[in-house]
Amino acid sequence: MKTTRSGRGLMPLLLLLAVVAPAQARAHGEFACRLPAAPPQTNVNSPFLEHSYRFLSELARRCPTSRQAAMMAAAETVYQVVWAWRPSPPTAADVAGAEQTVRNALARVERDTQTVRIEVGAGGPRAEPRKPLRAALGLEGYVALRLTNGGAAEVTILPRIAGVALSPVTVPPMRRETDDARWVLAPWTPERTGSQTLEVRLGDAGTLRLPAVVERPALLRGRILDAETDKPWPGRVTVQGSDGVLRHGEAFKSNTTLSEKPVVFRPASYRLPFFYSDGSFEVVTPPGATRITLERGFEHGRAHLSVQLRAGETCSITLSLRRFTDLRKMGWVSGDTHVHWVRNSWDVNEELGLLGMVQRAEDVRVVNNLTLYQYRPADQGGAFVKPDHHPMGPVSGMCDDAWHVQMAEEYRNDNHYGHINLLGLTRLIEPIAAGAGSGGPVGAPDWPTNRPIIEQARQQGGISIEAHNLGPFMASAVAANVVMGLSDSLDQLDAEVYYRFLNCGVHIGLSNGSDHPARVVGCARVYARMPRAGGRLQPFTYARWLAAVRTGRTFTTSGPLLLLKVNGSEPGDTLDLPPGAMLGVEVRALSRDPLGVVEIVANGRVLKSVRTRGRSCTVRLKVRADESRWFCARASRNGVWNAILSPDVAHTSAVYTRVGGREVMRAADARFYVANLQEHVRRLEAMGVFENAGQRAQAVAEAREGIARYEAVAAQAAKERPAP
Q: In sequence order, what are the residues at sequence separation of 6 or more whose Cβ sits closer than 8 angstroms to the Cβ of residue 416?
């Protein structure tokens, strides 16, 4: 790393910078384009919590800091208590817990952000004495106003800071200092340097004048080099200024596709804590201690740098990154199965050149850009089909032996069948969506089902991936598709749900995708293993990558890299063994961050668990083949095993071992899916919308066919393992 300046030089200091990882959402990302303007009906009447949710959400969107993830987590805690659907009302303990979480978060805000404590009331506003506020010329800064009311009646004010009107806020009379404060995030862009007075008008409550000092900003210029080639390369850059705010590079900061993401199923969005660079960048930042971090995908470490910037200076730095492992050389090729390269509004294509930059910055070798259909009433803009940059197939000019962008399709039914990603198509399959919501207004028919769409995809040589866990209401057509062999892979699936499928004798692998623009491209991804022929590793082609996903030669990750072998065989392989044979299980785990827990799981049970603070770990286990088993490996820092829900999670697909030719079958898991599909049938019969009785009968028949398969598994399992 190199640093040069327009003034005298200072030696840069290495600094370990924690990079904020945006919280992952469990819900379907596509619905982000239909968020309500305000939260739904409340579960409890708590003005303090409601106000705090909006303040913390605004903080995450306007003023990201290194504590952004914690602020978003606190806001989500409030949402779960105040607005989220619940089977029963929140208890007093639930409300008290949310209030304490918010108090802790607001205490951190006061420590980290320039905060002015203001008391409003009959005697006019008063501010506690404090040091002058600091800001940089022409650069938006932020002041947090902490408002309390010592009067006898509530006060509603419309704050104005530096002439800018903010949202109205109602401040009740103070009963307890801990929970009656109301917070306002006040952006401020000074227009001249030097000592000055910042005017804060509080409507009828009066006006405050706060001392402020404005300095000239500094300009940080950077270059990013690939350490192997010493050539410029895209990356993700985080710059934390002396005011604690994470600031974006000039090139793309106005492009919300690259700089902001919605909080899925929430009336909020957040500013990305990092920005993308195409190999060079400029950041205008306040003078003082400035921290820079460079990252690029999960096979690279992070480069950290700290510089002390002076007012008005230009500082030039060079950052480079080297892979700590190269999985592509080992035959493992990363990919995102689920990208819609559109703007955050979903209805406008984003520039494909930017996708190429993001793909390389995230080090995602394969990107599947999925076309979808979204119904909207005419007064909301009308229905649209996007992205539609290119016909189905490889995108011209964006595919070579190292990087690949493929147009594909997401077929969607929101209420009964679920969403499926159709990869490897040569032409778009119509109608793209069915049923109310994605496919049309209330009353739109839930037809066709997913099955004929999948069959059409297979006729084109494509594959079908279940896009979102178990689908709508966790009781959809997914379970039937899996047992009938219609599903080729499973995205965004909870581990326990996966284990139940494997315990029904099903051989199927895991995959994953970000669902951009709901999330950042590659935040959850799949690695697929290229085949060997004649003892030699075959080079990457999209067809080989697709075949690896279809046959379960995969692992999914939001950080760690997991390589599982059972007697030398890898995920997707099946071993037929004589009774009593010995099995050697080995898991090699690598990560740019401490791994946490690395585990070997077989037939739904954890056989070995290792906790480590290291960034590499090898776990070995010897097992006698006294029964048929499937084996998976998993890693997590936080007890979450689904990579789409959290950073730092990885899970492999299964290696299958059969003893006596038997598959793994557990009656309880088969009965779980019988009940799951019976609920799907009940919902079809009660709420499914069809144009005629024949369509309804066909949809129900497909579900009952799945039920019959699971009942057969349960019967076979009971026969082989009679109850004691």
A: 435, 446, 472, 476, 477, 680, 683, 684, 687, 688, 699
